[in-house]
Amino acid sequence: MASQDRIQSPKGMRDLMDDDACYFEYIYDVVRKRFNQCGFKHIEFPIFEETRLFERSIGDTSDIVSKEMYTFESKSGKSFTLRPEGTASVCRSYLQKNMSQLPQPVELWYMGPFFRYERPQKGRYRQFYQVGAEILGESSPAIDAQLILLYANILRDLELLDHTELQLNSLGCKDCRGSYISELKRYYEGKDRSMCEDCISRREKNPMRLLDCKDEDCIILAEIAPKLPDNLCECCNDFHVELKKYLDELGIKYTENPSLVRGLDYYSKTVFEFWGSHKGAQNAIGGGGRYDGLLEILGGEPTPGIGFGMGVDRMILEMERLDISIPKREKVDIFVASLGDAAKLKTLTLINNLHEADVRCVGGVGKPTMKAQLKLADSLRVKYALLMGELEVKDNVVLVKDMERGSQEKVPMEEVVDFVLDKLKNS
Ligand code: HAM
Fold first, then answer.
1. Which of 230, 233, 283, 304 is the most exposed place for a label (fewest CB within 10 A)?
2. 3-class secondary structure, 280
3. Is 314 near ligand 1, meaning CB less than 6 Å away?
C-alpha cells in the first residue's frame, strides 16, 4: 500500500502513548483516590445518547449543539449523538434510575472520552478526555465551595494548582437574567460595525455569549458592556457572597470575572473555570458550575445540581510544559527465555506462576533463537533472565542469570518462584 493510502487516525483524534499515557494514568490514579476519599460514586454512561438529550440540556443555540455534535441516525431512524460532555448524561441517569429516592446529595464522578467537531489545534481535539464530577439534590453555597475545593485539591496533587487561576462568576437565575439580557441587547443595538458576524447572530440567539467572544473588537465592546453581577437578584447575590466567604475561609484564591459565561446554556448562579498559566484560547484546563434548572428541563422535579469537567488533555499539556515529574512506571524485572519445543511448552506456565506471585515478568516465546531473546531481555534492562533448554527440562531445573553480574545459578523448577522473589526482595 502506498504510504499516502495508509489509513490515518481521524483528524483531531490521536493515539495516546508513552509519556502522554503515563501522565494520563497518573491523573486517573490521583482523581480516583480523591473521589474515593470524598465518598463520590463512579458512574460510566453510554458513549452516545439520544440527540434530543443534548439539544435540550446544552441548548440549541450553543456552539456545541449548533456546530460541534457528531450526530448519526440509527437503523431505526432515531437520532443519536456521540457525547460532547457528561452532565446531560448524568442528569438523564439520575432521573432514569430514580436517584431522587437515594439519600441526597448524590455525588458521582466519571472519566472518559468526549467528542466535539471543533477545528483541531494544540489543546483542542475532536476526541478529548474529561474527568467530571456532579453533585445532585442539594443547593447550598457550601456545596459549591466543597466541589471547588475538591477540584483545587486534585490540581494541588498534580502540582498544577500554583500554575492555575480560578475564575469565578455568577450567572444568576432566570429572574435576574431576564432583565439583564434585555439591557445587554439594548447595549449592543446599533453596534454591528464593531461586532464580528458570530456576535451579530448571538445578539438575538444567545446574548450572554457576546461577553466571551475572542474577537479583538468584540473584547473591547464586552469590557464596557453592562455586567450581570451588578444585576443579580437578592437571593443570587447572597448565594454568591456566601460562596466567596467559604472560599476565603478555605484559602482558595479566585479572580472575579464578570465576563465568564461558559458555553453551555444550563448554568445558573455559580460558574467557574481553572485557567492555565499560558495565555491563549485553549487555556481553560477545566470548568463547571451550578445547573439548578436542568433536571426540570429534562422532565424531572426541580432538583439542584453542580459539577465540573476537567480537561485531561490540557492538564497533560500543562504538566509536560511545566516538566512536572511523576512516579516512573515500574519496569519489568524478569525475562523468561527458552529454547526447544519442550522448554517452550513449560515457559507459559512458569511466566504465569511468576505473575501469580506478583512478579513483573515477560517471556520471549515468539522468538526462535536464544540470542534474540537475550537481546530483548537486555533492552528491557531486566534484573534476571530465567533460561530453559532441553537439558533443563529433563533435569527439571531453571538457570537464573543475574543480568548485571553475568553470573548464573541452577534452581529446581518448584523452587524458582520463591528463589526469584527472594532475590528481588534483596536487590
Ligand atoms: P466544558 O467547559 O465544555 O464543560 O469542558 C470542560 C473542559 O474540557 C474544558 O475546560 C477543557 O479543558 C476541556 N475541553 C473541552 N473541549 C475540549 C476539546 N475540544 N479539546 C480538549 N479539551 C477540551 C463541560 O463539558 C461541562 N459538562 C462541565 C460541567 C460539569 N459543568 C457542570 N458539570
1. 230
2. coil
3. yes
Query: By C-alpha distance, which of 365, 364, 370, 349 is closest to 417?
Result: 349
Compute, in angstroms, the gap from residue 114 CA to the centroid of ligand 1: 9
What is the 287 CA–ligand 1 centroid distance (Å)? 6
Q: For residue 262, which atom of ligand 1 is closest to its CA?
A: 2
pLDDT in tens, 241-282: 999 999 999 999 999 999 999 989 999 999 999 999 877 667
How remote is the CA of residue 347 from the centroid of ligand 1, in Å?
48
Q: What is the mean pLDDT of residues 372-377?
A: 94
Q: Which residues of 142-156 are buried (b: 16+ CB within 10 A; e: fewer)?
A: ebbbbbbbbbbbbbe
Whether the CB-CB separation of 120 and 293 falls below 8 Å is answered with: no
Share of the chain above pLDDT 70, in %: 99
Best mutation site among 31, 106, 130 for ligand 1, i.e. most ligand atoms within 8 A of its Cβ? 130
For ligand 1, the distance from its centroid to the CA atom of residue 284, given in whole angstroms, is 8
pLDDT value of position 2: 67
| CB distance 84 to ligand 1 below 6 Å | no
Q: Is the dihedral of CA 146, 152, 155, 156 positive or negative?
A: negative
Nearest CA to ligand 1 atom 31: 288
DSSP string covering 160-209: -GGGEEEEEEE---HHHHHHHHHHHHHHHTT-GGGS-HHHHHHHHH-GGG
User: What percent of the chain has pLDDT above 90?
Assistant: 82
Burial 361-387, CB ≥16 within 10 A → b, else e: bbbbeebeebeebbebbeebebbbbbb
- What pTM was computed for the model? 0.93
Beta bridge partners of 79: 73
Q: Which residue's alpha carbon is nearest to atom 9 within ligand 1?
A: 286
Which uninterrupted H or E stretch holds 362? strand 361-363
pLDDT surpasses 80 at 4: no
